[in-house]
Amino acid sequence: MTTPNMHYADLKDSYLFYNIAQKTKAYLEANPDKRLYRMGIGDVSLPLCSAVIKALHEAVDDQAVKENFHGYMPECGASFLREAIADYYAHKGVTVSADEVFVSSGASDELGDILDLFDTNSTALVIEPAYPAYVDANIMSGRKIVHLSSGEENGFLPSPDDSIKADILYICSPNNPTGAVFSRHQLQEWVDFANKNGSVILFDAAYEAFIEDETLPHSIFELKGARTCAIEICSLSKTAGFTGTRMGYTVIPKELERKGMNLNSMWVRNRTTKTNGVSYIIQKGGAAVFTAEGQRQIHENIKVYKNNAKVLMEALDKLGIWYTGGNNAPYIWLKCPNGMDSWEFFDYLLNEIQVVGTPGEGFGKCGEGYFRFSTFGSPEDTKEAARRLCELLK
Fold first, then answer.
1. Among 349, 344, 354, 359, which residue's Cα sits nearest to residue 32?
2. Distance from C-alpha of 205 to C-alpha of 171, rounded to nearest angstrom
3. How large a percentage of the chain has pLDDT more than 70?
4. What CATH number was assigned to the domain covering residues 50-291?
5. In the chain, N or C: fewer CB atoms in 10 Å?
6. 379: preceding bond cis by omega (within 30 degrees)
């Protein structure tokens, strides 16, 4: 009899977003005249910018002409896109070669696939609160997980501890769900820790484009020693609205080696074995993001989301509620008022003012008592949600 991967039995029910969906559905069925203000979903609300749409149309037209038609693409990414991404890093003062860039179908896919590079007997460290897929992907592989808690006392940005023994270190900055961003000094501590212990950092930089404070690092490769201990995984989902279009990229430096194995070469072999690459059409659209006009247009959209963050932060400031995030991230992580737990606060907002957020408990035990607001909604809905919040909690 075939034996399935029994590690799936170790997964906890993914109840967070299912419960949110069930609760909102039940509320609307009982209150059909009410309208919800959704501040919980992490999806974008603005369409792709015109530079990307133009490139996508041109790429579709290319596929109708024999001379311009493209079949299979290079598994690691088209050279025109890998070079554009390398140039994007260069403008940030970071040297990355095109053959250290790997084009993917999105950061979520890559965060799971990249675990192929590591032995299943290795240990993964996850800083909580955390994006739930970090934990689940490692459970599926049968890998041991070390949970490092964070909290208000360190701004949800913990330092490494020499008592920690882990091979893979997950760091997300700007963070989902907390919106907190590691400073250069804080991130350098983790880079030094990884090099000292022979660990590899999986640096999730999906939200780097939201950083306003230029003293904060956009890329881990801005830090000394990162090229010998880090892999950076990026996404165009929130940066450029590619949540439904699906494209991201991963940077693996050629210096990154463990036990005589070169991880860049390993990933080339992995991608050429397990994928047929991202479609020509999508890669052409992705390349448009990195043009001067594409950058101008996507930052106009990001400005809308950043203004949403300001509206919500002003409301929380007025109410005297502790929070982090917002300034350099599309998420705001707040302390539930009046000692409420996170699901109690969810129900309170839903039933009293029809505002939907995300309970912190769903991101790990130390998320209990906290709540996440997303800033990806419309400006009109965000302003109304902030108004209702102030009226309810004044």
1. 354
2. 9
3. 100
4. 3.40.640.10
5. N
6. no
